[in-house]
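Appendix B. One record, verbatim.
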Amino acid sequence: MTLNEIWDLLNGIVSTTGILHLGWQNVIMWCVSFFFLYLAIVKNFEPLLLLPIGFGIFIFNFPLVPLMGYTEGHGQLIRIFYQYGLEWEVIPCVIFLGLGAMTDFGPLIANPKTLLIGAGAQLGVFVTFTGTVLAGFTLKEAASVGIIGGADGPTTIYLTQHLAPQLLGANALAAYSYMAMVPLIQPPIMRLLTSEKERKIRMKQLRHVSRAEKIIYPILSSLIIAILVPSVIPLMGMFMFGNLMKESGVVGRLTETAQNTLMNIVTIFLGISVGATMEASKFLSWRPLFISASGMFIAMFS
């Protein structure tokens, strides 16, 4: 083997590594991933979400990694999770199934006025929508960013995929990261807006809610939602189905699966897929950074 052949061989080996393709953008995204891993591992803030998101950001932001592209027309590993889970909107709906199986509507049924509290929290949606439009986003993009104010990750993913899929990574990251930071955001705001006496009030359920009422509620809610807003039935229908399974008391194994095993599986796929959307070239621009920065305000306002 000649010297030139040896040199070409070495060049070929080096070119298959990511060493020559590393840039400062990669390092910045590693730091972002380490921040989320720190929150998950050290601070224990929503570790079930922030740990897979953080590691997804880390592993994807290396040059030449075969994760989100295509090989011979077939999606690579995380591309499969992303395409079937997020682009096809399977994961958000399955998560809502699990959430429904965990939810107790008893206090709401006993005191329907508490609906106003939930409605008031959605004001953050409209404030953010207005601010985002003024910042130069399109109406659809602003709507996808504004829904972060609802403090709900699956809804953010679902709506963003419909309206502005190019913002999916930034929106999902903002929604889940600021949900995780609620323990930091909430206490100072509560101290500012309430007295110590008010904070000591213990909310009690006003009356006993019967099993029949709890069974009828998800069925009646699904009927009303399907008639008034049929486009959200994939999410809300699964949510109410999960709640019906729980309250019926006749499918304990299915309820247990929806609450635990199934929820844990889709959370893994969701987290690592969301993290893998945070490519340096796309994230390090003013629009994703604006979304991330506004997330803190959204959470505080809501």
